[in-house]
Every structure is written in C-alpha cells, then in structure tokens.
Design a protein that fits this description.
Helix content is 51%, strand content 0%. By secondary structure, the chain is an all-alpha fold. Bound molecules: iron/sulfur cluster. The site of iron/sulfur cluster has 13 residues, from α1, α2 and α3.
Length: 186
C-alpha cells in the first residue's frame, strides 16, 4: 500500500497529499479501516478453495463503499492523489477506473482540474449558505404581528415643555424646590 486511507502517507512512503482536497471525516466505523486488506485487491490471490477470491473481495469492497457516508469526498481525494492511491479500491473504483476518470476530468476541466473542483465546491457551499437565508413565510410574519399586538403599549415619557403640568407633578416640583432651598439655607 502506498498511502494510508486516512490521507496521511505512512512510512516508507513520504508522498505529501494534495492539501486542496482534505480527506473527508466521519465518526462511522469504515470497512476500509477495519479490514484494509479487503480493499487491496491487487494483493489478493485466488486460492484453490476460492478461485474467485479477488472478485469476491472486489464485490464486498464495492458494496461497503456504496453505503459509505463519505464516498464522494473519498473519490475526490483519491482522484486528486494518484500517487497515494495507485492500488486498491477507493470509493468503489479500481485503479483503472480512477485513471479513466482523471483523463475525463482533464478533458472537461483542464490540467489543473483539482483547482476547478475546489472552486466548484466553494461556489456550491456559498449557494447553499444563500439558500439558507430565506425570507420568513407568510405564516411566520402573521405570528410575529400577533406577538407585537399582544405587547402592551408603554405610555410616552412626560415632556415638560410641550404638555400641561398636572397637579401631582406641580406638588412634586414644589416639594423638591422647598427641600433644595431649605438645605441651602441650613
Ligand atoms: S468510500 Fe470506500 S474506500 Fe472510501 S472511505 Fe468509504 S469505505 Fe473507505
């Protein structure tokens, strides 16, 4: 095996992974990590007991990849890192499948197709963020209006220059004035 399925090269291989496409993460237990030999079909030799050992492993690995939650990210990573995925099954593809897919990507997106894919992914994430900021539905607006109507209206603060003074306010002002004068005189 030339690389690890975590995206980190292992000894004796020191090939750096293409950092533009990070290996996707999942907390789910993956068959390619618990039983990596099953995915290294090139290492599997048919035995007398099982003449179709490689085909059996291929079918099992493909089935495991089909139910994998990170299959799309795994395929992108495997395609972007040919030197780390020279053998084995990655995202239900053989080495030959991946070579053909890379050729098609070069045809469609150019020699630096990895940059084009990264850009596409960024634009897709931005579009998804925009879609999430949707205007409130009519029902939500009606509910918000009802809530506002339920809030009791607060009285306007007293404005001494425009409103006539009330007897209570006049008495309070007088008390404050008398107190101030008394304190001054003391
Ligand atoms: S798609 Fe397959 S090879 Fe890739 S992480 Fe999932 S199980 Fe492993």
């Amino acid at each position: 095996m030339t690389g690890s399925r975590t995206g980190i090269p292992q000894q004796p291989t020191f090939i750096a992974a293409d950092g533009r496409i990070p290996f996707p993460h999942t907390d789910q237990i993956l068959r390619c990590r618990t039983n990596p030999q099953m995915f290294e079909i090139e290492d599997i030799h048919s035995t007398a007991e099982n003449s179709h050992a490689r085909q059996t492993a291929l079918t099992t690995a493909n089935r495991a990849c089909s139910g994998c939650p990170i299959v799309t990210g795994c395929l992108k990573w495997a395609l972007a890192n040919p030197d780390l995925t020279k053998t084995g099954i990655w995202a239900a593809t053989t080495a030959r499948d991946r070579a053909e897919l890379r050729d098609r990507l070069v045809e469609r997106l150019g020699a630096d197709w990895v940059a084009a894919v990264v850009d596409q992914d960024r634009r897709r994430r931005e579009r998804q963020r925009e879609v999430r900021v949707v205007p409130p539905a009519t029902r939500e607006l009606a509910l918000a209006r009802l809530e506002l109507e339920d809030i009791p209206t607060r009285p306007e603060p007293y404005n001494r220059w425009t409103e006539p003074i009330t007897p209570d306010r006049a008495a309070s002002n007088r008390r404050a004035l008398v107190q101030a004068i008394t304190n001054e005189a003391a």
